[in-house]
Design a protein that fits this description.
CATH architecture of the largest domain: 3-Layer(aba) Sandwich
Structural class: alpha/beta
Strand content: 5-15%
Shape: globular
Oligomer: single chain
Strand order of the largest sheet: 1-8-7-2-3-4
CATH superfamily of the largest domain: HUPs
């Protein structure tokens, strides 16, 4: 990539789909330009933090990951921060209720799937990529819970892992700062560090967040651990600066702007050059109303099979077409403007545009061949009333509850959804051509079902 192409990419990253860009004096942009011209030798560190509360990354996350790949191509280093500690608190962003605590084992499982999925979009090799978890500095020696029945070796001595000294050795040997980044010194955050930070942050500043104000006005409970979340996220930026030598930019959606700006404040109070903040517009979900969210069930996961992904894109409302093209594809800005004008003047059929959109998105995550098959299967299934050639299959014991089987196969998310679909006549036995009506139905034979508008499942008896 020559310098002109890099400059063009810089301008596009800092403008396309951007909701807010806080870069006082243009300092961060100047770093990028110098990097493109070969005049900046230091690493440019980009922080992107994710709490692994659910196993799938969806298209809303992918909007940011694709931008991060563009920054990597310019020469930046992505630090992918896994918030395994903060995931157990829960970011209150956009939430009207307290998020329940998540089991550490679930966090660990979700974390590994995240690392597998980001590699579909970003570079995951050095020097363009590094990852670290924030439990590396937020957990303390006394938080270590060693397994029973083994001892910790320190030089020529075996230590009881339940003792303070044993825990200290185990703590030191399991910090990613040492095992992955080969640092000699481990950065940790103590309660004293947190209290020192809180001395510079007022209560009024924290409760000015929209979601906190909505809780207060609605007489909902607002707990201190939730108010601490933005502070901990800010401390993360400070620690990344200490570990990696800088934290030049933090990226996220516009719903994260408050948290990211607090990171600037924490860095300033510690005498560090504050990070720039780049917040991209949020991608709405398939309902066209709320932001894409797994908890709302309006998301498209990048791990969805091609047929399901294609069908979900086809289900978005016409009003979302241009936003999806802008945020989820590489369509040039000029073509976007032209397409928007044609759609407004009704010179383009929205269904045809969604077919193009769905094919482009499926191609990005599954390849051109899979996208072509998904398109053909969709046309055959929904235009011609057919059944897709490849239907997900699952096994079930004779007499098992159908609701449990569908939940286990991730066809429905809950028994509440199953009951709603039954009440709406939206679960159909394709072999008999009948709608299912019994919410307590047992598996008595093999079934091929259509669930809702896009989901199919074949159930075989064990």
């Amino acid at each position: 990539m020559d310098i002109e192409e890099k400059v063009k990419k810089i301008d596009e990253v800092l403008s396309r789909g951007v909701g807010e860009f806080i870069d006082p004096g243009g300092a961060f942009r100047e770093k990028l330009l110098k990097k493109a011209r070969g005049e900046y030798d230091k690493e440019i560190i980009i922080k992107f933090g994710v709490d692994p509360t659910r196993p799938d990354i969806h298209l809303g996350h992918a909007v940011i990951l694709r931008k991060l790949r563009a920054l990597q191509d310019i020469g930046c280093k992505l630090v992918f921060l896994i918030g395994d500690f903060t995931a157990r608190i829960g970011d209150p962003t956009g939430k009207s209720k307290v998020r329940p605590e998540i089991d550490q084992q679930e966090v660990e499982r979700n974390m590994m799937t995240y690392l597998e999925q980001v590699g579909k979009i970003t570079l995951v090799t050095t020097p363009s990529f590094s990852w670290i978890r924030n439990s590396d500095w937020f957990l303390n020696v006394t938080d270590i819970q060693p397994k029973q029945g083994f001892f910790v070796r320190f030089k020529t001595t075996f230590l009881n892992p339940g003792s303070f000294v044993g825990k200290a050795v185990l703590y030191d040997e399991t910090r990613m700062q040492k095992t992955h980044l080969k640092k000699n010194h481990v950065v940790s955050v103590s309660l004293a560090n947190i209290l020192s930070t809180l001395r510079h942050i007022t209560h009024a500043r924290l409760i000015e967040r929209d979601m906190f104000q909505e809780r207060i006005e609605g007489n909902e409970e607002l707990y201190m651990h939730e108010m601490m979340y933005p502070v901990l996220q800010g401390i993360d930026s400070h620690v990344i600066h200490l570990i990696y030598g800088s934290c030049d930019l933090e990226v996220g959606g516009t719903d994260q702007t408050f948290n990211m700006l607090l990171g600037r404040d924490v860095m300033k109070m510690n005498g560090q050059e504050p990070q720039a903040v780049l917040a991209w517009k949020l991608l709405e979900g398939t309902d066209g109303k709320e932001k894409m969210s797994k908890s709302l069930g309006n998301y498209i996961a990048i791990n969805d099979d091609p047929f399901d992904m294609f069908g979900k894109v086809m289900s978005i409302p016409d009003s979302s077409i241009i936003n999806y093209f802008e945020l989820c594809t590489y369509m040039p800005a000029a073509d976007l403007a032209s397409l928007g004008g044609k759609l407004e003047k009704q010179e383009e059929n929205p269904r045809d545009l969604k077919m193009r959109l769905a094919e482009q998105i499926v191609t990005m995550y599954h390849g051109e061949a899979a996208a072509g098959k998904a398109r053909d299967a969709f046309i055959d299934t929904f235009k011609n009333g057919g059944i897709p050639d490849e239907i997900p299959e699952t096994n079930a014991a004779h007499g098992a509850n159908l609701s449990d089987v569908l939940m286990g196969a991730n066809i429905v998310s809950s028994k509440t959804e199953f009951r709603r679909l039954i009440d709406e006549g939206a679960i159909r036995d394709l072999e008999k051509g009948e709608e299912l009506t019994d919410v307590h139905q047992k598996i008595e034979r093999g079934l091929t079902l259509k669930v809702g508008k896009r989901r199919f499942i074949r159930i075989r008896i064990l």
